[in-house]
Amino acid sequence: MKKKTDLRILRTKQSIRKAFYELIQEKGYEAITIQDIADRAMINRNTFYLHYQNKPNLLDTCINELLNELKDAVILCPISINSFSISMLETVMQTVLEHISRNITFYYAMLIEENRIYQFRVKMENIIKDKLNEGWNPKENAPVAISKDLLLEYLVSAFMGIVIWWIKNDQPLPANEAAAQFSRIVTYGHFKAASTSAEE
Questions:
Q1: How far apart are CA 148 and CA 137, in angstroms?
Q2: N or C: which end of the chain has fewer CB within 10 A?
């Protein structure tokens, strides 16, 4: 009997969240009311309050649960102990895109255009940055002296740019191909990857 109750609760929460994501895309977070969510999820307001305190609580719960899932997936990506690994970068990108594809409505609502949620992007960027920084100690005698912090910011910004392009354009490349092309750009530089030349 308890299992049936748990399943019903799970379905109700899924309906609430699906309605919430769709409404963020349509109206923006600030314009949504609890009644809007209840109407779209085909529940009454009292049912909503059985599961969430208010709209900010629903937003925080959705963000934290999905980003925890993303973090758990990214943590499993292998790292190179001695140096930054391009193959690791490619694996992380593919893992992130595959996770997004399974939760595309949420990510679209959180990251795209005027209805995006800024705090979500910041938290997502920190997950990516922590992973890229894991076990990475640039050599002191590197041929070009570049700040590690600056380089990490560059990589994370490029990474998120690809993610947003991929979502906004309805996943135009398979996750593995988008990840492979991104790693080639990082490996060879954008001029060489595009078969063009640059002058000092």
A1: 9
A2: C
